[in-house]
Task: structure prediction
Amino acid sequence: MDLALTPEQEMLKSAVRGFIQQEYPKNVLLEMAESGDAVPSEPWQKLVETGWMGILIPQEFGGEGGSFTDAGVMFEELGRGPVPGPHISSSVLSAFAIMAGGSDVQKREWLPAIARGERLLVPAVTEADYSWHPEDVHAVARSNGSGVQVDGVKVYVFDATFATHLLCAVRSENGNDVGLVMVPADSPGVSVRPLEGFGWNLAEVRLENVSVDPSNVLGGSIAGGWSALIQGIGNTIPILCAYQVGACQAVYEMSVEYSRTRVQFGTPIGRFQRVQDHIINLVNQLDAARWTTYETLWKMDAGREATDSIHLAKAVGSTAYHEACNFAHEVHAGVGSMTEYGLTLHTAASRTLYHYLGEPRVHKRLLADTLGL
Amino acid sequence: MDFEPRYTQEQEEFRQEVREWLKDNVSPDISHPADSAKSGPEQYDLRRDLGRRLGSKGWLWATAPEEYGGGGLSLDHAVVLEEEVDSYGLTIPPYYDSGGRLGGASIMVWGSEEQKQEFLPKIFRGEVRTWQLLTEPEAGSDVASVKTRAERNGDEYVINGQKVFVGSDLGCDYMWTLTCTDNEAPRHQNLGWFMIPADLPGITVQPMDLLIAGGESGAGSGVKNTVYFDNVRVPAFNLVGGENEGWKVATTHLELEHGSGGRIGRNWMVDNLFDYCRKTNRRGEPLTKDPDVRDRLIDIYMEAEVARLFNLRNYWMRHSKTNLTYEGPQASYFRKMSGLRMSTAILDILGPSALTHDETWGAGNGHMESHQRSAIVAIHPGGTADIQKVIMARRIGIGREVRERAGALA
Ligand SMILES: Cc1cc2nc3c(=O)[nH]c(=O)nc-3n(C[C@H](O)[C@H](O)[C@H](O)COP(=O)(O)OP(=O)(O)OC[C@H]3O[C@@H](n4cnc5c(N)ncnc54)[C@H](O)[C@@H]3O)c2cc1C
Result:
């Protein structure tokens, strides 16, 4: 047993942390949140140039072939921002879906392009009846002559505004299968509309008479696509959880610092036990997320059966991020709700990630099934 | 990262040796009642006997130095011993004892060479059982405010006062305690830490009637006492750490007691409960098929997993000599509160069968009923749940002007 990171992982961690501090300071993150332009930005270009987007993609497909723990270390640092952009959606989830279900040709075509950040392939799965169940997918792929025609409305799609391509979950013409089709975001008939409000980079994606080449159907057939997505989600959750851990850590540090410096009634507010309660609740959430995540990453790397840990980590981790932000708001009171302070960047992210890839309630149910209850 | 204990060839060989030995030395008459307060002197004697046997092999306190009666073995060996003894439903030591883990560890850090030679071998070989006497009627959470007075008189100290909520059933050989050695000196500079033979004249032990059940491994432990000191004359030799230096000694065992030690292992109560719910039908279906019950069971499972991971982390941090700050009290706080929430869930799921240990109508051979009680009382020993939070806040660096450091463990 050894719960420490390797020296290489420690180096990666400080390299990413240094990069984020340099390229994604608070004012930049606030501007991105305001404009919605996280991707054409200079920091994103630099982030892509580091090659880190290919961390989980095998070397034979142009990636770094890193371990889950390596990637966890890196994404934990991105979570501290929270750094926006299709890093998890494209370079982790879509990449894993392609690795799981793509043909050799598709892997050679897509994975290197995703690793280099040239293609930003964002999964568009959920619809009006929001869920991560195949029954709720109603978008359809029909064959029309030599091509495939896709129709449907995808809603609450995370990161869709950044996409060059959309990995759309679609139902087969006969209704029996649900699979995945890669749709260029600039195809005629595709429209992406940001959903304004408290969501974090959520959008509606409309697909009307969209024609795509049959080579864009993952694995060459609609059948089998859904299971590739599910496999991809299973592999992505530990990374998403690592991102949430970094985010919780940043929220924690912010709150500790504030409680040391904010003075009321002649004393730093951290001296008040009510305030301490909030900080302690926060750190307990943080550490619960951290260690359920780390154990999952280890299981993935060690080739252990990890299904239970994946559901546990997502249920614990998404609850933790949500709660951590609530506790931080208690500690900060008025200041925390001022956009310019930066806490609300996390608060907004925590709400969207709560649901992304399934909310805690869903994963608790799946955990019960996995445990054979 | 590697979350799994790895066993070397040497460990596996040691495991074989331990297995063989335990087969010959663990009495088949040792029983495990749900409420350990219910097992009497015969069970205690069996367990003490096993303790002595383990002790004479150096397996009772395996990692303690050989020169002081310990096993001088590595942590790797201790892990194997714990696992093998655990397979008999036993712990090391197999009875309530505050000597090796807390008292002995403090003497190791703060005792003089002569004191180590005098006290440690008896403890580490399992020859004596030791109680911890901190709490007083007016000094609970604020343990530094103890009033039990120790006054120097020639080569002795004369001790007068009263301790409460201490010890166990069936007596002990030694008591270690914190006293006031100076009425005038400032707080934390006025205390003395003593190792006191339990048979000295003037010591009276009176059992308290409490809600507790079990909680501390072994026979007869679900009992706490009031201990009176009436002009008890203790050799000055038995003062550890020096006059007015008792607080620093206390920081060591308080740190250990606040959960910093960590542990490997899982909460068997969760398995018992799952099992019970799988086998118990309501309206023709196992309880586990009721959506509300599933939901509660998963909440319990998740908290138990987090508690397991906190303990595992602390275990690793301690043994890899990584600096601990708030982690000890965090694990302790989480364990206490999740235990209480678990008892609520058990009551909710099982109904009144969780409230009786009646042989016919009580759930889970009385284990559920005993959990209902112990979960409440477990909030308090070793510092209340709220006190764990007080300590966390200090360690995080918000509770006080100067960030508090963890107590010395070595
Ligand atoms: C089963 C059991 C076994 C025990 N075993 C032993 C033993 O072996 N040896 C021994 O010496 N003692 C033992 N104790 C005593 C135990 O350590 C004390 O009960 C405990 O430290 C609390 O002290 P108290 O009961 O006097 O409560 P108090 O200290 O009076 O606390 C009452 C309430 O006030 C709160 N409080 C106190 N101070 C603060 C503060 N600064 N900030 C916020 N809240 C505060 C507490 O959290 C609690 O909620 C045992 C107790 C039990 C129940």
Remarks:
- DSSP finds eleven helices and ten strands in chain B.
- Chain B touches chain A through 40 residues (CB under 8 Å).
